[in-house]
Design goal:
Belongs to the nitroreductase family. HadB/RutE subfamily. It contains 8 helices and 4 strands, in the order H-H-E-H-H-E-H-H-E-H-E-H. The protein has a 4-stranded antiparallel beta sheet. It is of the alpha+beta class. 40% of the residues lie in helices and 14% in strands. It has one domain: 3-Layer(aba) Sandwich (NADH Oxidase). It is globular. The two termini are 26 Å apart.
Length: 194
């Protein structure tokens, strides 16, 4: 595998910022399909793929989503072309005969705490893959908490049992709402080597 060039690394990491304001430029459903078709290849434990993604992009969907948003996040969320609820399926193991066909892995996740930790951890990983895939397709992202998960689950997931983890607004950033890069911890404060 070869190293990405600096332009790609800038787009994915060094120059990318959290978007807070959005251009009035739509994101087509074809882009959302391409986005999922990239992120789905990110690795998960036993290929369990527990993340589920709700793409909210219609006025009707946004009207349903709005009451669940915190006051500080509502306006920017409603202005974003697409809002993604990154969720996880507590019953992800039901899909393992398809996703992990060479062995029956369902018993590995029979204990409720193991299933929860696996779904939350790997679903979070898949949410990060969504951000990187979106950036690779030229989209800007605004990941956030600041919403009422119970309201989202009642409004959108009552039939599926999915659990809301975090949200990502997607679109094309208006640079006037982008902050300067905030500090990051240096290697010696964030890492150890043994």
């Amino acid at each position: 595998m070869s190293r990405l060039n600096d332009d790609a690394l800038d787009q994915l990491f060094r120059e990318a910022r959290t978007a807070n304001k959005w251009q009035d430029k739509p994101v087509g459903e074809d882009v959302l399909h391409a986005l999922y078709d990239l992120l789905k290849f990110g690795p998960t434990s036993a290929n369990c793929c527990p993340a589920r993604f709700l793409f909210v992009h219609t006025p009707e969907g946004k009207k349903r989503l709005s009451p669940a948003m915190s006051a500080g996040n509502r306006d920017k969320t409603m202005a974003a072309p697409v809002n993604v609820v990154v969720a996880y399926d507590p019953h992800f193991a039901d899909e393992l005969p398809f996703l992990f066909p060479h062995q029956d892995a369902r018993p590995w996740f029979a204990a409720p705490e193991v299933a929860y930790q696996t779904a939350f951890r790997n679903g979070s990983l898949q949410g990060a893959y969504l951000i990187m895939a979106a950036r690779s397709l030229g989209l800007d992202c605004g990941p956030m908490s600041g919403f009422d998960a119970a309201k989202i689950e009642a409004e959108f997931f009552a039939d599926t049992g999915w659990k809301a983890n975090f949200m990502v607004n997607l679109g094309y950033a208006d640079p006037s709402g982008t902050m300067e890069r905030l500090p990051r911890l240096p290697f010696d404060k964030a890492c150890a080597m043994v």
